[in-house]
Design brief:
This protein has one domain (3-344): Ribonuclease Z/Hydroxyacylglutathione hydrolase-like (Metallo-beta-lactamase, Chain A). The model is unreliable at 342-348 (pLDDT under 50). It has helices at 46-54, 74-77, 80-83, 96-100, 113-118, 125-142, 164-167, 208-211, 239-248, 263-266, 281-287, 313-322, and strands at 3-7, 16-19, 25-28, 30-31, 56-58, 61-68, 105-111, 154-158, 174-175, 180-181, 183-184, 187-188, 192-198, 215-222, 225-233, 257-261, 290-298, 332-334, 340-344. The longest helix has 18 residues, at 125-142. The protein has 348 residues and is an alpha/beta fold. A hairpin with a 2-residue loop joins strand 14 and strand 15 (225-233). Keywords: Plasmid. This is Metallohydrolase.
Length: 348
């Protein structure tokens, strides 16, 4: 079995499924549109494919080993409250109706508390549901519950925090920028690992919520060869975040990528504050870490030559300019054209 990452076509939003060679899986963000379930809908029914074809089964429900919410904007967590099983499956077994609804059980929840504490008044119902589920799982550790480190209850805290209750959690469930995470859902992983880039402890000038997005790199081994594939995902992180990531990273291998998801749905904020500005040099420097025929993926609606931002045609042009084969758009993918699947991990 090979590694595979699927970028689903959800318009200006994010929902990615990573299927690892050992059978584990990870969903990064979700944008489950209710209208996608309607007959003749123009939207791809991501949830239907996940629950009928892609995920394993546990507790009589679809099961994903980990769910990562990069940040709580609605286009990154739409449908979370309705489509996931948000209880302890060991104490509160799924009902028949929950099984009929195919609610997804999350083995391990990746949670960055900082953005939630700073923007609690702005949260959507789905974001509030995610925060409540994270707090439920942390409470199990606080109470030393016997089920705290079992499927459906695990949590991983990403980044810095001020909450004393979180500080009391064991180091094994925390990860900070500069850390390499070698486990997933309670098991050590030999064929892949996660390098955490952000969010940082200190404030970064700019859009606060986007500047606290989780940013991480996944390194994949293939056929016993280490680090053959490298994927970097970063939610809606703006150019200042990417500049600071480069300043803070000592080992350049943690910046390299074969697949890079264009931040904020290919808006110009990866390059500068305004589309009228020239790209920041730090943004261009980051794109130079591309390995081989690396792919850039825009999780967005169709990119057109208009004033939209996101997605921004000018940003797409800047990405193409940074590629070696800039006359060839084969390595720039927009999810809106069709469901974009990049198989195996692109080999340099």
């Amino acid at each position: 079995m090979t590694h595979k990452i699927t970028f689903y076509p959800v318009g200006n939003g994010d929902c990615n499924l990573i299927s690892f060679s050992d059978g584990a899986s990870m969903i990064v963000d979700c944008n489950f549109r209710q209208e996608a379930e309607e007959e003749d809908s123009p939207y791809f029914d991501v949830w239907k494919e996940l629950t009928s074809e892609k995920l394993n089964t546990k507790f009589g429900l679809p099961f994903v080993d980990a769910f990562v919410l990069t940040h709580p904007d609605q286009d990154h967590c739409r449908g979370f409250a309705e489509k996931f099983f948000l209880k302890d499956p060991h104490k509160d077994a799924p009902s028949k109706s929950e099984k009929d609804d195919k609610l997804i059980v999350i083995g391990e929840l990746w949670y960055s508390p900082r953005v939630f504490s700073e923007h609690s008044r702005e949260l959507s119902d789905d974001a509030k549901a995610f925060k409540k589920e994270a707090e439920r799982r942390m409470k199990l550790w606080e109470n030393n519950d016997a089920n705290k480190n079992k499927d459906g209850n695990r949590i991983r805290i990403i980044g810095y925090f001020d909450d004393e209750k979180i500080k009391n959690l064991p180091d094994s469930v925390k990860a900070f920028p500069g850390d390499t995470v070698k486990s997933l859902n309670g098991s050590s992983r030999k064929e892949y690992r996660f390098f955490i880039h952000a969010p940082f402890k200190d404030d970064i000038e700019g859009n606060d919520r986007n500047c606290t997005s989780i940013v991480f790199q996944i390194k994949f081994d293939v056929d016993k060869t280490s680090d053959v594939g490298k994927v970097i995902l970063g939610g809606d992180a703006e150019w200042r975040v990417w500049r600071k990531i480069q300043e803070a990273t000592d080992d350049d291998t943690n910046l390299k990528w074969n697949i890079f998801e264009a931040p904020h749905h290919c808006s110009y904020t990866f390059f500068s504050d305004s589309r009228d500005n020239e790209p920041e040099q730090s943004a261009l420097n980051f794109l130079a870490y591309r390995e081989g025929n690396g792919y850039i993926v825009s999780s967005s609606k169709l990119i057109k030559p208009n004033t939209d931002n996101p997605p921004c045609q000018k940003a797409k042009n800047r990405y193409l300019d940074a590629m070696d084969d800039k006359e060839d758009e084969d390595y720039f993918k927009c999810t809106q054209l069709k469901m974009t699947k990049v198989m195996k991990c692109i080999t340099p």
